[in-house]
Design goal:
The protein is an alpha+beta fold. It is built from 8 helices and 8 strands. It has helices at 9-88, 92-98, 109-118, 167-174, 190-193, 197-200, 218-226, 252-266; strands at residues 134-141, 147-151, 162-164, 182-184, 229-233, 240-247, 271-278, 284-286. The N and C termini lie far apart (134 Å).
Length: 288
């Protein structure tokens, strides 16, 4: 015999409420599905809009190799324009002088000095008459740290301002006033000069025992420098010397003697190559 289920009034009400809750949950699920479907539809629409842009991007990337192919031509045009503007920086006088120098040739010292006279602008119709150009020797050395002192037989043609370190001079340097080319100091002054080392050091004006500017008899050192002694030292970042060897008014003979003494002090074993020029002339490669 099967079981007989007896319904009561309270059970019917509970069952009714349960059915209503299940119905609400089902409706809520359907709403979620509808929202998700609409969201996917919107994404699909966006994708459809983006696709043409992506295709455009692809077309742009395909055009890049053609741009690269044109790059060398553009580079050549830029180089030609740069050369034109570079020429514009020099006067017609300078450009006419450049043609006198064979850039592929290395001249002997006597040939270079003879050519240097021809390159003077004073010899040209529109030259600057009365301007005595300084003669410069630029030497590339094989190593860094080449330095020393030398007294040129005919001087440099430039008056060298030599000063002796003192409390008053240090006070002026602190204010930014520097009225000297060479500074000589007694050993006892070096501690005081430390205050202005940041100012003097980068300018190469700090007294140094290697170039003889620290001495118990600074007055004697001053006489040497005023008599034509000069110091030379390669640049801190490159093995190169920039030297003043006289004035064009000295003439080839005196200039040659000055240069020979300078080369002897530097030593030919340290020299890689050299260029001779005056203040406003093009450079001449010279064999020292």
């Amino acid at each position: 015999m099967g079981k007989i289920r007896v319904k009561t009034l309270g059970d019917e009400e509970a069952e009714k409420k349960q059915k209503e809750e299940l119905k609400k949950k089902k409706e809520a699920r359907l709403q979620k599905h509808e929202l998700s479907d609409s969201g996917q539809a919107k994404k699909a629409e966006k994708k459809a809009v983006v696709e043409p842009e992506e295709k455009v991007a692809e077309i742009k990337t395909e055009a890049k190799p053609e741009e690269k192919a044109e790059a060398p031509e553009l580079k050549k045009e830029k180089k030609e324009k740069f050369q034109e503007t570079k020429k514009a920086y020099h006067s017609s006088q300078y450009l006419s002088l450049v043609g006198e120098v064979d850039k592929k040739k290395t001249y002997s010292l006597s040939e270079a000095l003879s050519l240097l006279e021809k390159l003077q602008r004073n010899n040209l119709p529109a030259g600057r008459h009365g301007f005595d150009e300084t003669v410069e020797l630029h030497i590339n050395t094989l190593t860094n740290g080449v330095s020393g002192n030398v007294t040129l037989p005919h001087g440099t043609g430039k008056k060298t301002r030599v000063a002796i370190a003192s409390d008053a001079l240090i006070a002026e340097v602190e204010k930014g006033v520097i009225n000297f080319d060479i500074l000589v100091a007694e050993p006892s002054m070096m501690a005081k000069l430390a205050k202005v080392a940041r100012v003097l050091g980068p300018r190469g004006l700090m007294p140094n025992p290697k170039n003889g500017t620290i001495s118990p008899k600074p007055e004697e050192v001053v006489k040497k420098y005023e008599g034509g002694q000069i110091s030379f030292k390669t640049e801190s970042k490159a093995p190169i010397l920039h030297l003043t060897v006289g004035k064009m008014s000295f003439g080839p003979k005196k200039l040659e003697e000055n240069i020979e003494v300078m080369v002897k002090a530097i030593k030919t074993a340290n020299i890689k190559d050299a260029t001779l020029k005056s203040t406003m002339s093009p450079g001449i490669k010279v064999n020292l």
